[in-house]
Amino acid sequence: MSATSTSPYFPEKFRNYGPSYAPTPQVLVANYVYDVPNLGERFHSRPLGWVTDHWTVSGITQWHNNIRSAVPGISFTGTTSTNPQMDWTGGYEGARMLVVGSPKLASGASTSGPTSTPLVPAPGANVNGTPGNQLLNESVFVIPFPCSYAPGPTPQQGVGEQMSCYGNAGPGSLIAVPGTQEFNWDMTFGKFFPLKGERRQLLFRGEFYNIFNHTQFSAANISPSYNWPLWQQGVLEQTNSNLGRYTAALSPRQISLSLRLVF
């Protein structure tokens, strides 16, 4: 990273440098080829050999752990030309979220809103969106109050010259998105049928991609967005209807079959 893009206010290792692996930091791949024993030859049975002999199984099995994503940015809806989103820091370096805890949700848990900010959820609303569509504890991502020359009448209108308005989120891919791990099996089954000798053969080949047809999500929406006029009044209303939803998946099972005559 060039010196012109580093922060003049925070240590570089804290503000500008972080892990850059994407989409996953750990990958395990296994390649294999297996020649199935020829039971027909072993038991001197030609009919059995037509079923069991001359099979080859090969494949690639891949395991990727959960993809990583950066801490969500500050996002609002409902801004207008007469009520625009303010300049959070008053300088060239923008604000980031305040991360106040672990975004990992306990099994079966749901959140009801931030506890580290005076903002409260709107009546009947959940900060994470629709219950059942929560991948992360979004309440740990807290919008900092903006800086101002002098403190405003409310924190939403400025808290004076404080460094807290910059947020504390680091750079890079930091969050493991649950449910996005990959465990994929691509396998090929091949068999040749000798036709009156080894020089003439009928070759069968079956290729199976994602043979077990596992649903494997590859992307998710974890970026909250809030109602700007209500936020100014101290109320959090989530406006991202896709928050906590998976947005992409790997291909389902695909099969390719072929038959070839060699002579």
Structure write-up:
8% of the residues lie in helices and 28% in strands. A hairpin with a 6-residue loop joins strand 9 and strand 10. It has a five-stranded antiparallel sheet with strand order 1-2-9-10-15, with no helix packed on it. The protein has a two-stranded antiparallel sheet with strand order 3-8. It is elongated, with a radius of gyration of 28 Å. The protein has one domain. By secondary structure, it is mainly beta. About 8% of the residues have low confidence. The protein contains four helices and 15 strands.
Shape: elongated
- Beta-strand proportion: 25-35%
Q: Output the radius of gyration.
A: 28 Å
Count of domain modules = 1
What class, by secondary structure content? mainly beta
Helix content: under 10%
Unreliable stretches: 110-131
The succession of helices and strands, N to C, reads: HEHHEEEEEEEEEEEHEEE
Walk across the major sheet and give the strand order. 1-2-9-10-15
Query: Biggest sheet: strands, sense, closure?
Result: 5 strands, antiparallel
Q: Helix count, per DSSP?
A: 4
Cα distance spanning the termini: 61 Å
> How many runs of DSSP E, i.e. beta strands?
15
How much is the average pLDDT?
84
Features:
mainly beta, five-stranded antiparallel β-sheet, 4 helices, single chain, two-stranded antiparallel ribbon, 28% strand, 8% helix, 263 residues
